[in-house]
Design a protein that fits this description.
The protein is of the alpha+beta class. Helices cover 32% and strands 25% of the residues.
Length: 425
Amino acid sequence: MCIRDRSKAAPKRGIFVMNKWAPANLARQQQSASPLLAYAHRCSFSKKTVPVPSMGDSISDGVVFELLKKAGDYVKQDEIVAIIETDKVKVDIKSPESGVLVKLFAQQGDTVEVGKDFFEIDLAGAQPAGQAAPQQQKKQETAQESKPQKQQPTQEKPQQAAKPSPQQAAPQQAAAQQKAQQPQTHIGGTGGVNRNERREKMSRMRLKIAQRLKDAQNTCAMLTTFQEVDMSQAIQCRNDFKDEFLKKHGAKLGFMSFFIKAAVAALKDQPAVNAVIVGNEIIYREYVDLSVAVATPTGLIVPVLRNCENMSFADVEKGLELLAKKGKDGTITAEEMAGGTFTISNGGIFGSLMGTPIINPPQSAILGMHAIVNRPVVVNDTIVARPMMYLALTYDHRSVSYTHLTLPTIYSVQISVVAVSLKKK
């Protein structure tokens, strides 16, 4: 017969929790709560704070121009969340990963600094099932708009105007007679005078442009000299080779490449115009980085073509086409607009016949092109009609002296030389 010793206690049922022995009922509670703890642990590490990215050299802050997403929206990787406007460009702020936008730390119109928190995204957030892709939504909206909507014809009964009573008609007739007897003091048209006003806040880029233009006037001793150039040979050369040029290089042959090639030759001949004043010194650059003014929907920007002295006609035209596209799309960077040594501005595309361009600091000069107009000129003692263009060179008289006043004439000569050389090629 086996006698069981009951002095020994039965083993306790449980598990180790946090390196301590826990009873079975507590263990079951811990096990049931573990999914919640795991979810909370996962959520705490799934949220990511995205700072304001670097937007180029010398740019430390910007203004939130537009918010394309709001808190609670699902964003995909590389999808644009907001647009920040700086002194030079507009920068697209994209989401580094897909997830749900939890919080925005700035609103539209706020000034944000580089490196500061901009928005928070939950990487564990799933895309809502009912949220269709933007292209699908656009197609659905287009399909709905294309369907004709049948409208039920409605017949309205003509309402008879209520006739005023004799008591009401008497005062009205008296007021009309009194108004007719009063003298008319209104001067102008028969309609009402519009005195409405509308105010708009200047953009960050426009404020910076205005400041730089005024600083140039206050700092530089600006003078402008004018010259005219006969565009006959350049026009003839362009007409002869534009189709072949487009077929061979995939870019259109414009007049700007003629002037850029002429500018490079002229700046090499007169290095003072390609120089810059820094403190008590003048720095002469042996390279030519040309800033070319490009009109965009948000204002005038001046991107730079680097090392134009090494460029061919095709390189110039392709570079200009790329910069113009970036400027219109708003994808041009601050680095692409910094460091120019000389500027060319073509006001002729707006029909301007003559003007005085303002220097783009810290540069020392700027060349203004204008419209090509047939004018009577004297050639070999004979008056003939020629396509002429006025050139305006504004320069800083502190570094460019009177000995450089023949520069527009150099441009005129070089335009002809470049045109002839292109024909030979």
